[in-house]
Amino acid sequence: MAAVAGGRVSGRISALLGAAGATRAVYTALRKRPPGGAVLWERKNYAGRTVNLHAGLATTTGTALAAVTAPGLPARTRAAGALAVLAAGGCGAYDDVFGASDPRRGFRAHLSALRQKEVTSGAVKLFGIGAAGLAAGALLKERPADKVLAGVVIAGSAHLVNLLDVRPGRAVGAVLAIGAPGLLRRGPAGALSAAPMGAAAAVLGDDVGERTMIGDAGAHALGAALGLAIVTGNGRRGLAAHAAGLIAAAAAGDRVSRAAATL
Fold it and tell me: Is 97 a residue whose pLDDT tops 60?
């Protein structure tokens, strides 16, 4: 028993440190040589300061690597982790780059544009992350209802962290707070909670210091990873409760973001 418990702890530590190390390495490399040039990844934050978006790509990479390489995870869980995190981060990065000048925000705005036969970067993100969440859920659960609930939790968690990304440190801090209880869970949930926490911790100082921001790429990738941890640690009843809460948060998106901004 002690050996098993020790293995679980070492697996979580490995995932935490692996994610942190990989995230920091990628972040440093991107600062030195950003793809497409520095200007492509620069944005004005809420206070008008120029920051970079390198933390988003770095946390996506670090989280995905840790989820795939964490010891003791089943092959299907590794595949689900890579799929959900990379798809969420990739769709978020697409919106970061191509949706920067689009003032439309929220589900309604992007769905309204679709009715006008305009495919916005936000719509790509919405449907891309939703589809990836459902595919990852199908890998993790056996019964159809559980697969759907798992997909809602993964995509909903990605959206929730993005809603909280309104001021420096808010989203990253939320990832650390939401992920912490998962470290106590048995099985894959522990390592899958540790991965986004390690990645978030690696950029926390730069995020709070207003040198970088995680953007849509990082927020969605970190959130999707938290969703994976929730899915692997819960049965149908727990999945249903989390899905209901995440749907409610999405429906009250503006209020959630305003509340996060006041903290």
Answer: yes
